[in-house]
């Protein structure tokens, strides 16, 4: 398997490229619209053809590159079936693998950050989106989020995986790239260290986080598979522009 971890600095989003060496096909998990030129250049460099873009959830902090990639190279769009997006080519269901040549990606329904959030397991790696971050987790106060649901998702679904399973999150704001299930069980201050569900719910309720600055534009755009809004304020237009530089993670 060909694997690359890519970092978009404006939203601190990780995009993951997985390629099948046998077929030359590839998929991208959580592509970002202002980094698709980077992604397409890397695919060309690796001699891969983009077959799928795959979303962990409907994002509130950036616009997905799914629609623009489909328009440019004919890739298909896969999202959670529960989101019922008319623009998607495939509705992903819990426990039903997405297969691409020798690659197999298993969706795991992990509600809590959003109601329909998916993590993906494959090749000894776990792509956790915004549900489980490195020594953290996504917020639970919008888009059907629930601290109680997120606690169950992590403890009953993800923390039951082998400790050596590598954890690749949807974001990191401190330059970290990878963790493991064992590390998060031992060190995550929100969800690990033996913290109870009641403690976690109280912690999340007390965060008092500010309203997300991009959510009113990102959610409608992402429900249309990445259509950039026409009414973006000047200070947010970079979120739908082509970035001239976007380093790999």
Short description:
This is MBL fold metallo-hydrolase. The protein is of the alpha/beta class and 249 residues long.
Notes on the structure:
The protein has a single domain (2-207), classed as Metallo-beta-lactamase, Chain A, CATH 3.60.15.10. Helix content is 22%, strand content 25%. It has six helices and 14 strands. The protein has helices spanning 36-46, 66-73, 147-158, 181-187, 197-205, 215-223; strands at residues 2-8, 13-19, 25-29, 49-54, 76-80, 90-92, 98-100, 103-109, 118-122, 125-129, 132-133, 136-137, 166-169, 179-180. A six-stranded mixed β-sheet has the order 1-2-3-4-5-6, covered by helices on one side. Helix 3 (147-158) crosses helix 5. The longest helix has 12 residues, at 147-158. The radius of gyration is 17 Å and the shape is globular. It starts with a strand and ends in a 26-residue tail after the last helix. The relative contact order is 0.17.
Question: What is the total number of structural domains?
Answer: 1
Q: Which fold does the CATH topology refer to?
A: Metallo-beta-lactamase, Chain A
**Largest pleated sheet:** 6 strands, mixed
Number of DSSP strand runs: 14
CATH class: Alpha Beta
Distance between the termini: 18 Å
Give the overall silhouette.
globular
> What is the CATH architecture annotation?
4-Layer Sandwich
Number of helices: 6
Please identify which CATH superfamily we are dealing with. Answer: Ribonuclease Z/Hydroxyacylglutathione hydrolase-like
Which structural class do you get from the secondary structure elements?
A: alpha/beta
* Cα radius of gyration in angstroms: 17 Å
Order of helices and strands: EEEHEHEEEEEEEEHEEHHH
What value does the average pLDDT take?
A: 94
In order across it, which strands form the biggest sheet? 1-2-3-4-5-6
